[in-house]
Amino acid sequence: MQTQQIVAAIQAGDLGRAEQLSRTALDASPSDENLLLLLAISLHMQGRPQDAAPVYAELTRVQPLSSEYWNNYATALVGSGDLKAAADAYAKALDLDPANATARSQLGATLIQMHEYLAARDLLLDAVEKQPESLRARVEAARACCRCQDYEGATDLLRHWRLSVPVNDDALQLELAEVLTQNNEIPGATELLEDLLARHPDHHEARVQLAHLYERRNRLDAAHAVLAPVMQAGSGSSELQRIRGLHVEATLAMRGKDAAAARDLLVQAGPESDTDYNHYFQLASAYDKLGDTSEAMDALRVAHEREADERRYDSPEFYAPGAPAMPMDAPRVSAEQFARWPKYIAPEMRDSPVFVVGFPRSGTTLLEQMLDAHPALQSMDENPFFNRLAGILGQHDRRILDDLSVLRQFDCDELRKRYNTMVGERIERNWDLRLVDKNPLNMLWLPMMVRLFPESKFILAVRHPCDVILSCYMQNFRASTLAAACSTLERLARAYAETMQRWLDDVQVFKPSVMVSRYEDLVDDFPAQVSRIAAFLELDDVAPMLQFDRHARGKAYIATPSYSQVIEPVNRRGVGRWQRYREYFEPVLPVLEPMLRHWGYAGS
Predict the structure, then answer these.
(1) Do residues 505 and 449 touch, judged by C-beta distance below 8 A?
(2) Which residue of 10, 67, 184, 363 could cross-link 519, Cys pair, CB 3.0 to 4.6 Å?
(3) What does pTM read for this prediction?
(4) DSSP for 352-386?
């Protein structure tokens, strides 16, 4: 009878009465399993996990072999903030019942909260092996992959997510959209959020996320419209949703050239959490536009400090003492090694990619959009294909990367096939067009590019090193390699100087067909420079390239940090910007001096 009354109280939502009845009954039967469970449930449903945890713990003593009780205990511990004990309890639940998918999923989520990203990925990938058809398992594993910077792994896990649509689970659909966003698959995430919002117009979280994606896709009016209901008084949106909404509004204000409004919105919002370093990057951008260099640099200092605290979890080796300024493990090839390379059959120039390289923020995206506007060329989103090819070789035998002369004709053919397969996974390849492969730091992979495509043409984007470094320092990069390199101006200057010197050394060895595109010349005399680029690539009719901004505005998505700039005509706003920050650059100018002199910027 007592049990029935307690259950009735819980079902009626009278949780306080359910708790009281449970405690009274337990006075007479302190080890009654059913009464303990009902008390724990009533406490948990009241939002009191810290009170529910000891009751669940007692249940694990009453029934120590119950995987379900250990799982419930772990969940209460998570709510209480004791993540380590929660992880141990979830592990116990899994040990008792390896088929407990809930425990496996929640243990993975807990490990992510504990910043144990690699352990979470391994655990959740194991869950995918056990349930390969489970979209939830794939989404959770893909989230862990993103946390580990394993974006290729996340892409593989979610490659066929559209086969699971309709998802028929709103929470899972929202989570899938979040993970796709983390993996920079913005069009797919947009589709999912639009579908969710069409069915649930009052879904504030979907609105905030969709507003962010609309801005990211240069759909500014749509971003304003979808966000407005969230920000209205009495909308019922949560405090966190309103803070996120204010961050989107600040971004939109910056797009509208109202930096003062953006600053005020950001100050009003504050960071989303103690780990929200993007807030400070946004704030720095607003201060920069307002000409307040001191406040901009102070915000950037906080941004990089908080980012380093987070990135050390997924890439600790990049922040270790003695770590290279630019942590990229690309192969080196000496002139003596190159002389031993066998001559192989390889694609002709017109069947080879056009590689656009340069240190990040040097104008590579501008060049890519210009080239993509030409009807004879086809570009794609930035992808680290040569990093991946090197990874394949390294897994087979690391020594290959130390001496690429051991590659046979068959090996090179297979690597080119793998490259083309990866390209085909990113774009619908038109084989009548020449491919444009723009990835700034491909400049570190010149040996591999020349080994596979010796007849390729390369365009090197060059910009005043100080303008490059300032722009990089103000950028919130997704990749931990770049985030680490940009953590301080001094390290960033070394990364620039070392990367550029390596390129120059490799060019001396391989002597590829390279054209240098100087950013300042490009914006000063755009038609002449476009004609020069077209002549280098043996292209006819430069007119489409001159109207690249119109072509870019017609794209559904531009997957680079400069997505908002390349839809505008060329301008000189980015030239000489570093001069306002000269006092901060004085200590690093000696590091940059060789490159300033080499590229003709000495004395600037």
Answers:
(1) no
(2) 363
(3) 0.89
(4) SPEEEE-STTSSHHHHHHHHHTSTTEEE-----HH
For position 229, what pLDDT does the model report? 97
CA gap 103, 90 in Å, rounded: 6
Smallest Cα–Cα separation from 149: which of 312, 271, 301?
312
334 in Cβ contact with 403 (< 8 Å): no
The span from the CA of 139 to the CA of 555, in Å, is 27
Which 3 state secondary structure label does DSSP give 557?
coil
Residues 6+ apart with CB under 8 A from 581: 293, 297, 470
Mean pLDDT of the chain: 93
Asked whether 9 and 46 are in contact (CB, 8 A), the reply is no
Whole-angstrom CA distances from 549 to 143, 361, 436 are 34, 18, 17
Measured from the Cβ of residue 39, the count of other Cβ atoms closer than 10 Å reads 26
Q: What pLDDT digit, counting tens, does each position of 570-583 carry?
A: 777 888 999 999 99
CA atoms within 13 A on the CB side of 74: 26
- Residue 206 near residue 174, CB atoms below 8 Å: yes
The rounded distance, in Å, linking the Cα atoms of 150 and 147 is 7
Q: Which residues pair with 357 in a beta bridge?
A: 460
Sequence-separated (6 or more) residues with CB below 8 Å from residue 207: 197, 226, 227, 229, 230
SS3 call for 461: strand
Q: Edge to edge, what strands does the sheet with 513-518 contain? A: 377-379, 434-438, 354-357, 457-462, 513-518
CA 302 distance to own-chain centroid:
20
Tokens of 11: 């079902």
Please give the torsion angle defined by the CA atoms of residues 58, 62, 65 and 69, in that order, rounded to the nearest 10 degrees. -40
Q: At what angle do helices 204-216 and 170-182 cross, to 10 degrees?
A: 30
User: Which amino acid does the sequence have at 208?
Assistant: V
CA distance 74 to 69: 9
Residue/partner pairs of 590-599 with CB below 8 Å, 24 or more apart: 591/490, 591/493, 591/494, 591/497, 592/465, 592/466, 592/469, 592/493, 592/496, 592/497, 594/497, 594/501, 595/465, 595/496, 595/497, 595/500, 595/501, 596/465, 598/500, 598/504, 599/462, 599/465, 599/518
Q: What SS3 state is found at 438?
A: strand
β-bridge pairing 434-438 and 457-462: unpaired
Q: What is the pLDDT of residues 66-84, one digit of tens each?
A: 999 999 999 999 999 999 9
